[in-house]
Write a structure and sequence with these properties.
It is a single chain. The protein is mostly beta strands and 106 residues long. The protein has a single domain (3-105), classed as Jelly Rolls, CATH 2.60.120.260. It contains no helices and ten strands. It has strands at 3-12, 18-22, 28-38, 44-52, 55-58, 64-66, 71-74, 78-80, 85-90, 96-105. Strands 1, 3, 7, 8 and 10 form a five-stranded antiparallel sheet that branches. Strands 2, 4, 5, 6 and 9 form a five-stranded antiparallel sheet that branches. The chain is globular.
Length: 106
């Protein structure tokens, strides 16, 4: 078993809830941080979720507001198994950047 510290995913949050990261088959992951940055000129809202065994759970406050140009960091660790996902959405698509960093068991 080898542990790798990785940049797991990055992109922009969609309007409709979408998968941001999926734990690869045969691996486990610890999400260490999820950072979101509002690149827009207005306050927006976002949601982050963890889906384990088919159940979707909030890992950020529902409809979290983030000011123009501000960032938010979710730094509670989350353990995940093969096939689990991190999902998210935003009130406006294409304006909130995200990065997901963590440790993956290879």
């Amino acid at each position: 078993m080898s542990l790798q510290i990785l940049a797991l995913a990055d992109g922009r949050l969609p309007v409709a809830t979408g998968v941001l990261y999926t734990v690869p088959v045969g691996r486990t992951t610890i999400i260490k941080t999820i950072t979101v940055v509002n690149t827009d000129v207005a306050t927006r809202q976002f949601n982050l979720y963890l889906r384990r065994t088919g159940t979707l759970r909030n890992i950020s406050p529902a409809n979290q507001s983030i000011g123009a140009g501000w960032k938010s960091v979710e730094d509670d660790p989350h353990t995940m198994q093969s096939g689990d996902t991190v999902e998210g959405n935003a009130s406006v698509g294409g304006v909130i950047d995200y990065t997901i960093d963590g440790v993956e068991n290879a």
